[in-house]
Predict the structure.
Amino acid sequence: MAVSSRQKEGFTMPELEYLAQCETVTIVPMHRMERLELVRGTVGPFRPPQKTQVPLWLATMLKRTNRCRIVAPDWLKYEHLQKLCKQEEEPDSLFTKLPFHYLEIAHILLTVAEDDIAESQGIRRLLQDLRESRQSKTLRGMEMLNPLQLQMDNLSAAEINEIRPLFRHSFNMLRQLDSLVLASEKSQQQSQYADQSYAGLEDSFVSSYPL
Amino acid sequence: MSKRNYYDIDDILASQERVPCFLRTDLDGLGSSGGGGSSKVHRNSRWSLPFWMADRLNDEDYLDMQVSLVFSKQSNRMYAASPESVDLRNICQNYYQFGLQLSEVAPEVPHVLHNMYMTRIQKIARVAQQGNNVETLDFVQSLDKMEEDILRVCQHAQGAITAWHQNKAYALQKAPVIHN
């Protein structure tokens, strides 16, 4: 099947969003419901007002039909994000710890369950700030580019996806160049050895020559 | 010719770049005989032939292939001074691919390419992230084919998150017929 060039370069954002929907979130159900037997495991039973853990896709489904309230995860609190923003902006700091799918989860929660999240506008703004400072950090990470490896801890799925084509192409190119450089060095060394052995040969000739 | 990228269309296209050659033998019947001249190609004459042809003839000792002017020592030194301001598109459309192919003949070329690539790829990353503007226009127009491809896919990837935030990333959209 023909794959579009964009899909060849990694995931598309809707695909990542789909993957993120398997993460669990905490909800407070509004109605009583028996436990649900799903392929990935059992969720429930739902007894309001007891909190339960469900996959994100189920939470959004329930939320849309007004059968639950989503409890915002700890990392999606205003104070916490503010702290992260400060940490992120410190010079020479590493990437702060966030869930692997934080952008996707935040986007879904802020679209579907905006009323359940306190200070959602502020959170939106902070997420934007966070993303921008992380983006400039990944750019600085580019300077460490080498053909062997690249390490950036705590980078999220969407951010990795964002820089994937660049790294894929440049790794490939650098790897090719490196092998060529090695090969040329090897051949130079060999020719040097050859010169030396010639020189040695001449020496032995000279010394064996009766003077 | 290197068999490395036998199926790579860019590699094949890059092999049409011309290299200066020095003929070692007389070749009969291969010159253009327009205007009643002889169709003989004389030994010791200079030709500029596509790399794919020159490489093969070089292997069979019909001619001496020389390093293309693009990768001559002088131009290498010149480009190394400021890799970011070199107009690769004008110099050679397939600079990197061609350089990779030439590296069998000229062992210093990989070093040159490496320096050039490392400096320029960082600028490409910056341009991809910040988007096109007037200052980067000159640089964007100086990219060779491979760099241009990289820049394009990078810009796509960089724009993906923004587009998705604006709900533009979804594959399913209303057919134009359904509108209004």
